[in-house]
What we know:
By secondary structure, the chain is mainly beta. It contains 2 helices and 12 strands, in the order αββαββββββββββ. The protein has 2 domains: 35 residues, no CATH class; 99 residues, Immunoglobulins (Immunoglobulin-like, Sandwich), CATH 2.60.40.
Amino acid sequence: MIGLGFPNSSPHGPRASEAPPRELRDPCSGPRLCSSDLAADIGTRMVGGALVRPRALAVAYVLLMLASLPARADDGRGTPAIVSLGYLEGTVRLTPACPVETARAPCPVPPGAYVGREILVRTAGEVVARAALDPHGHYRVALPAGTYVVDINHVGMDASADVPRAIGVRRGETVRVDIAIDTGIR
Length: 186
């Protein structure tokens, strides 16, 4: 340890008989009652001028770490198993993109055509996930294992024979649902 510059100090700090200079003394020493005295009485300490409870910080840290762990469930054999996710992914095609479109000459999908369109994932009638489409109509969403109904959010006259569709998601697996949307352009 480096000496603190006290007269006659050793490299290990001041000797017990030496008092530190006045400017290095604890301002709460003496007969005055300071918040650090109160902190010592209630199991807290002063850090940067704030009262801190070390046990409360430790508990908060442990709870935060536990919350970041994956959920656990019974694997059917009475032993806990880590619940992992499965995925739903696919591509949405918008057709027609112009009033006169043929199989030989399809119209390009205009930029921004996928903006505002979403894939809805429901269970028991409630929407549990939404997946936005990227500029090319692709989507991907992570879901816990279970049974779901996939649908679209029906922008304007959008309709599709591909949805609603019931799917089953298993942990670690990907379910692909491609959807062709009839935009209603004629």
